[in-house]
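#structure-requests
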Amino acid sequence: MNAAKIHGCARLLGAEINTDINCSSKYLPGKDNAYIAQHAYENIAPGFAARFKAGDIIVAGKNFGINSSREQAVHIMKLMGVAAIVAPAFGRQFFRNAINNGLPVVECDIAGITDSDEIVIDLARGNVAVAARNINRTVAVLPPAVQRILAEGGLITFLQKHPDWSLA
């Protein structure tokens, strides 16, 4: 995966999304992750998983992933093929789980972005763009270490490839 530049179709979700409720076997006992991925977000956006295609980008309102300490939520989104998530703010635990599992997350104003818009995220330059709507937003550039973790597909893979790595 080229984590520096991501192209995909925007798939909108609302604000204050608790991924534990929408992507957890806790609420679907006996169901595996593949089944949950096929039904993710159904209770807040009927048909969302059916419309979602691998490579799409979730565009959500503020506080996406609140109350989420379960990495399973990120695992479900990776099974769905989520390329990245753009939202004005994320739950902190979710944000870190996403990075640790190689799922790019970008904090950005989402005003004007609509469902099915073609969106381009440039992690290296700190930019989110929707050409069809003349949206070109500057966002915080993720630290180089975080970009390297994303480029390797997650923290475990990164550390396996770079066992002597340190911030020093």
